[in-house]
Amino acid sequence: MPCDVLGQAASSIVNTGAPPAWVDLPASEAVGNVPTDQSPHGEIFTLFDEQVNAATSETFVHIEKEITSEDAVQNGANLAFPYDPSFQALILHQITIHRGAQNIDRLDPSKFKIIQQETDLNRQIYNGTLSALLFLEDVRVGDRIEYSYTIRGKNPVLQGRYMDTFFTKLSVPVEHLRFRLLWPEDRKLNYKAYGADVEPTLINHDGLKEYVWDLHDLSAVVPEDQTPSWYPVYPWLQLSEFNNWSEVEAWASGLYVNTNLDSPELKAQISSLQSPHATTEQTVQAALDFVQNDIRYLGIEFGPSSYHPTEPVTVLQRRFGDCKDKAFLFCTLLQGLGYEATPALVSTGFGQSLPDLLPAPHDFDHVIVRVVADGKTFWVDPTRTYQHGPATERYLPDFGYGLLLQPGESDLTPIPASDVGLPETYTSEKFIVSGQKDPTHLAVVSTYNGFDAEWMRAALASIGNEGLAKSFLNDYGRRYPGATPAAPLVVDDFPKSDTLIITHEYNITNFWVLDPDKQHYRCEFYPLGIHSWIIKPTTSIRSMPLELSFPRERVVHTEIDLPREFNLSNFTNTITGPASELHIQRTYVDRRMTLDYRYQSLTNFVPLSLMADHFYSLDRMESAIGYSLIWQNMDTSGTNQFNWPIFLLIAFYSLLLAIGAVLVYRFQCLSSGHILQAPPVIESNVSGLGGWLILIGLGLVFSLFRLVFLVIQTLNVFSLWKWQALTTPGGISYQPAMAPVLIFELLGQLTTLTLCLFTLVLFFQKRRVFPRWFIGMLVFNLIFIFLDAVAVKGLLHSSKPQTGITLTRNLTRAVIGCSIWIPYMCVSRRVKSTFVR
């Protein structure tokens, strides 16, 4: 933190004295109503009392706080009293440590250091605030520190008008919080509370009105990340002597008055922007480029300078200024060129909620400009840097409303949400994937448009090409640990279209990662440009709304050239939540897979009522992005690892078939029930295993061997490595229905084999039940072949010609067999005379 110590004379000057006579000191109320464990900082304010006398421009502050932990000893024992020396004076009244019955006086002016603590220098803002800093000695847990001070003086730029804010809850628990205001009876006061319904008590006495907001037993406010800036995280009170926006405009317009329009520097600069061949748009763009790029940003904002812009000629001479300085200079240049340009006060935090505030200068923290030229009205921000393209197409954040500084302006003016220069980034990735142990090449081309291009130019200006290349390498390295740069990072800037293109390439070793089972390799593809926008906030159980970046669009297009054919399907999915949308499309053609992602934010915040739906949509997006490919380990094609689950299934099912066959044989062939049936009529001349029965017998024997061979061939598919390749998502032949179809085929073949063997035994034993079982086997075989064909064509979507031919041939053979042999079994005299046992 920047910290400049002033000279020796200043460092020893601390004014002390008694509180002003108008101050009303409340009695101490340290009754312990707020639990100590509620304090996130290890301290509790037993009293926070702020009193303001508007007539004398004095503010008195009286604080008592209890130290409840070692953390508070470390931080809470350092006291800082900030003030602006250009118009304020600091008077210290009391610093006391209360320890049991002891009251230890620590108000020693010689122990103070006056420092100039520029907390905003990282934003190029110099506020000039001084702090009287005291490091309290001998502070212990359980001590109660009491101190009070008065700040006297008012910013003269406000011309005697009063405005103020006061928080009605703090980041630490407060037992007694009070805001007291003494107000002259002849002046009107406006006040409004935000985030909490608090009302003052009002007492009239001695020509003054006394307003008191008196609050007790307040718990600490626990902020949540990504809370919108307009949301009152800390409930607050606003007070203002301005009655309407017209009064604010009249006050502010008086600050933007040029007194040196005839200066040679100003005239020369206006002349340099004029060109006989330039269009109006080109002239306005030239003026905007000059103010944005040639006038560096630096804010000197203390005293009157916190509101009063610097003379344009001075800004031109020193070549720096803050937002109001740059806006004033830009308006002056355009007016000198003959165009209408008007400063507009805006708020970077309140946005659309700005009309809900009381009219006051402190509602605004930024200045932009409305330009009217050639019948076109557009808004620009002269403070922004790294913007390119025509002035009419440059991005402007959604400020919502602004106060135009022109005569007769009586209300806020709506500022249209920008529909140009929107933040858009398109990332194209090209993977050339090699073998399992070979490196993969990745080329990335990112195109940044509008505000995204502006943001990336700022990043390049801050860290340079080398720093940006390292940042990209770290991002990709976290996802692909083997990534190394394959070429220098290349930046191409196209100012006319406000587009920035960055190209970077990587070689990735160990792209295919071997799984712990060593049966297959896995690689992943992940849209890094999308992921950061679908991460849930740190605080997901919320009591406050959630801010989103809006508008926001990210597109990632990934092409992947694969080293071999994979059995991959096309896929499309759109996930829409209450605040964002993600579209995903996957296509695969001829060893090239394409992944397309498009993310868009739909709003700038999520209310509590939609929070659960929003987080649910983010979870769906998180699980949907990215894609994994699985490739069986080519080194394990001869593995002897056993597929125990499938083996146990086959053994159990085969046992069931064997038991069933034995039971059926004993019941239908050996049971005495058959002896009671009427004896068959035997024709001796046609009995015996002859005639067409010879063909049936040969067919059964042939079918038995054929089925044994087919089962053995099918079992080969169930070896562990092939089974994983076929049934694991991302495998080279994976389909969701592959596992059930393969198991169905195997169990069907085992059933047919058992039926064939059982029927063959009945055939050679000439059992009477043979014809029925033979017919049943034929019908079962037909149904099984039909269902298998439906599964292969319908569930696996097989389009291979050879597969279709095989299925058709098997089904035709089964139909013909049923058509011939079922009628023969029913009408043949030889069958009836042979199978009689």
Give the arrangement of secondary structure elements.
Blueprint: E1 4-5, H1 8-11, E2 15-16, E3 43-53, E4 58-67, H2 70-76, E5 78-83, E6 89-99, E7 102-105, E8 113-116, E9 125-126, E10 130-135, E11 144-152, E12 163-167, E13 174-184, E14 190-194, E15 201-205, E16 208-218, E17 236-240, H3 245-253, H4 264-272, H5 280-294, E18 296-297, E19 299-300, H6 312-318, E20 320-321, H7 323-336, E21 340-346, E22 366-373, E23 376-380, E24 401-404, E25 413-414, E26 424-432, E27 440-449, H8 451-479, E28 483-494, E29 499-508, E30 513-514, E31 520-525, H9 528-531, E32 546-547, E33 553-561, E34 571-576, E35 580-589, E36 592-601, E37 605-606, H10 611-624, E38 627-632, H11 644-669, H12 693-717, H13 720-727, H14 738-764, H15 770-795, H16 801-827, H17 829-834
Parallel strand pairs: 2-6, 3-13, 9-19, 18-20, 26-33
Antiparallel strand pairs: 1-8, 3-4, 4-11, 5-10, 6-7, 6-11, 8-10, 12-17, 13-16, 14-17, 15-16, 21-22, 21-24, 22-23, 24-25, 26-27, 27-29, 28-29, 30-31, 31-38, 32-37, 33-36, 34-35, 35-36
